[in-house]
Every structure is written in structure tokens, then in C-alpha cells.
């Protein structure tokens, strides 16, 4: 099955939640850290989060920076987390945001789409040009792997570059999205979407409807929900019939236990938060 068809099917069955495993060691409750190495503690925390949320989420996004920052201990936890997700047939987005060209890009693709750090999707930055995406295309053309490319991100500074006007009368982010759509038009899955999707933040609600209509075959990875101010109603603008995207939440789910002061129940709290988020977005789509 084409990986984008698999993701589309997961959204249909489980909802749009993407659980972000951006796991800092400070997020891990003391009772999990006790008697364990950093690597073991992070993996055990992630494992319990995965076990508690996999049936109510479409996929998992693992942000590599949190693991790289801890050196080999962190990368070991990263690999074990990926291995565990794969053993459960979960869809993995490796949030690596690579953006180099030529042979270097080929090595990044090899590193994160096969081997020890294999994922189903990677995140990429296009701002060196489309030749920073092209080395990954052989993985996408057969439908086995995919990517989410930075298009219209949720951070306040995104306007510094993404919203600059170009000579065609479009914004930079629109030119990027147009080029991605053209590059991936030959590998559209049965669901109507291409495996080369866009990172589209839900914090620019005035643009949401236009972006969804303009890029009808582009599947979105949607950050900005919760901690960055995005609401279920905002997210609904970027979806099509409740699908066509996944909505990431990291701290909101991982740290849900801190709202109620129950570190021993962190996994159960994460599940409750994921369900609450899923249901809120479903209701907003209906409205």
C-alpha cells in the first residue's frame, strides 16, 4: 500500500491526531527515571505513551533534536522508539527538517528512510531550492516513503520569508507549494493525495480555506494546535471532509499529566488528552 494511502486510512479510522514524541528528559516523571539510564528512561516513557495512544492517533512524529541533544544516549532512545513503533506497524514521521543538496541530501535520505533510523515520512526544508528535495524523490515515487516539506509554518517569524511577495504576485510559500505539487503529481495515491505533503501551521486562519482549496492533492502536517494557539475550529479549515491532514500535538499530550498532578498516570493522561483533541476536531469539522 502507498504510504499516503495508509496514512489516509489511519485518519479515517482513528482520527487526525499525530502524537509528537518531542521527549525532553525533564518531561519524564521521576518514577520512570529511577534506576534507569537516560536512554532507558526516555524509551520507557515513549513506549508507555505509544501503548496508551496508538489506537486513537493516526501517526507519531519523533523530533530528532530532542534525542541528538543527549548524544549517543539520546540517539539510542531514538532508535529504540522507531523500532518499537515499527513493531506495532505505526506510521512514523521523522522530524529532521533536512535541507541540503546533491550527495549530502542523498545521504540524509539513506540515513532516515532506510537503516537504523528508518521512518515512513521525513520533514524537509526547501529553502535551498527544489534540488534539495529531488534526491529524496526515488523513495517517494514508488509510494513506500513520503515527506512533509515546510510550506506555511506556524511560528511568528515565518512571515520573514514565507510571506514575501514574488514577481508572479504570489507569496514565497505559494511558489514552494506549487513546485511541490508539480514534483509529486506522478505519485498520487488512490486516496487522491501525494506522498509529498506540506507542513502547514493552523495559526494563520485567514489563509486556511484558500490554502486547502489551492492545494487539493497535498496532505498536510499541521502544527500549531494547543500550545501555539491553534484551536479545533482553526484546524478544521485545513482539512477536507475530516481528512487530508494530521494535527501534531507534542507537549499538550506528553505533559497532560502535569495539569492534574498525576505523574504516575502520565500515559492515561496522555490518552485522555489525545481523545479530547481528536473529538474536538471531529466536532469542529462537522460544524
TrEMBL record:
<dbReference type="InterPro" id="IPR018089">
    <property type="entry name" value="OMPdecase_AS"/>
</dbReference>
<keyword id="KW-0210">Decarboxylase</keyword>
<dbReference type="InterPro" id="IPR013785">
    <property type="entry name" value="Aldolase_TIM"/>
</dbReference>
<protein>
    <recommendedName>
        <fullName>Orotidine 5'-phosphate decarboxylase</fullName>
        <ecNumber>4.1.1.23</ecNumber>
    </recommendedName>
</protein>
<comment type="similarity">
    <text>Belongs to the OMP decarboxylase family. Type 2 subfamily.</text>
</comment>
<dbReference type="GO" id="GO:0004590">
    <property type="term" value="F:orotidine-5'-phosphate decarboxylase activity"/>
</dbReference>
<keyword id="KW-0456">Lyase</keyword>
<dbReference type="GO" id="GO:0006207">
    <property type="term" value="P:'de novo' pyrimidine nucleobase biosynthetic process"/>
</dbReference>
<comment type="pathway">
    <text>Pyrimidine metabolism; UMP biosynthesis via de novo pathway; UMP from orotate: step 2/2.</text>
</comment>
<dbReference type="InterPro" id="IPR011995">
    <property type="entry name" value="OMPdecase_type-2"/>
</dbReference>
<feature type="domain" description="Orotidine 5'-phosphate decarboxylase">
    <location>
        <begin position="16"/>
        <end position="266"/>
    </location>
</feature>
<keyword id="KW-0665">Pyrimidine biosynthesis</keyword>
<dbReference type="InterPro" id="IPR001754">
    <property type="entry name" value="OMPdeCOase_dom"/>
</dbReference>
<dbReference type="GO" id="GO:0044205">
    <property type="term" value="P:'de novo' UMP biosynthetic process"/>
</dbReference>
<dbReference type="InterPro" id="IPR011060">
    <property type="entry name" value="RibuloseP-bd_barrel"/>
</dbReference>
<feature type="active site" description="Proton donor">
    <location>
        <position position="97"/>
    </location>
</feature>
<dbReference type="Pfam" id="PF00215">
    <property type="entry name" value="OMPdecase"/>
</dbReference>
